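Incident review: delayed structure delivery

Summary: a single-chain prediction request sat in the queue longer than the usual turnaround. Root cause was a stuck worker, restarted by the on-call engineer. No data loss occurred. The affected request and its eventual output are reproduced below so the record is complete for anyone auditing the incident later.

Affected input:
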Amino acid sequence: MKDEIKDTKSFFQEMSEQLYIYISKVSPTGLDWVFHIIVKLSLLVAIFLFLDFIFKIIINYVFRLFRNENRFPILKSIYQSKITNSVAHFTALAIVGSMHEAIFVGALKQTTIFIIRSVNLGLVMILAGMLYRSLTAFRNYFTIQQDYYKVMAINAISETVKILGIFLFSIVSICVVFGIKGTTIVGSLGAITAVLVLVFRDTILGFVTGIHVATSKSLKVGDWIGIPKYSIEGNILDISLLTTKIANFDKTISSIPTYDLLTTEIKNLQVMSESNTRRIKKSIFFNINSFKFLNPEEIERLKEINLISDYLIEKTSEINHEKESIGHRDKVINGRQLTNIGVFRYYAQKYLENDREINKENPIMVRQLEITTQGLPMEVYCFTNDSNWQRFEEIQADIFDHLLVASKEFDLQIMQIGFPK
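Output delivered after worker restart:
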């Protein structure tokens, strides 16, 4: 193998000498060295392009021959990210770098240094591109696996690695091109470390947020979220290192700093959607002046309502039994009494419990809230069996349509602000 390499170098060295003689004959006097460098540089580039083309064909063919995308999806992601092309570039340039001495035999020292540094710079750039494509391969792999939490983590990490990579490869490139030691450059950057931290504040916070969200699995791309701070509600389109894009339901797109996902209150409504349940939490305001005790005639009339018939019979029996042991039982204020608002509250509770669209595994409540200047709010608190937005609104509307009209049977008045006639 070594003999073959020596023979190859001897071939290029002999070709270089013949080329030098030919250029010296045809080029203008005094400019032969310029033409010499240009032609040989062109030759190096041509050899690189030829080798790169050959290696890409061979490597990609072998890769496609042995890959099994179903068993090894990582191979599919590697091929899609074109890492194999980077390997071909690196191999071709490394070979060209080993040939330059044979082609530029007898060249000036400055020319040799220029060629060496150019090749080394090219290798550094190819390695940087290979690192970037490796991150893309990981992202493609987790996308194929539909592991969106890890996709988000890779996005955060890749953005950070890209920035650090640009910084580090820039230092390495400067060292390669100018022949400076890396410690000299890094040492001179120590004085501006605080400035760098300030400049990359959002980047650092975005990186920390991405790792936190990925490990806690609290958010992912596609989730339906609400952010009260910005009055935003919609689906997450993208979580990058610096910004998070949210598609609002009004067909607009909002962008917020990614670190807000860690420092701001976020409501993740995706859990509700995935469980196929959605909460109803809505109140009806009643006029307190319409509240009253029910007399026997009204109780008898309300007993015809199936949902509260047994309740009224039971409560009437209990109240009559208690009144037998108290004085002045003819006075309605003495002892317990049934009220129209209390019976209506029980009716609303039973109505929800018998509604097929209401989830019975979650709390079902009809409760009184604190009295306001607008009246007494009675809140309906329950969960529907369907989280679809349109269907949810239909179920909620049906419930309140019924309760608002049914309240008239109990002689209750709904509070509303009227306009002057």
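Verification: Residues 8 and 99 are 9 Å apart (CA to CA).
Action items: add queue-age alerting; document worker restart procedure.
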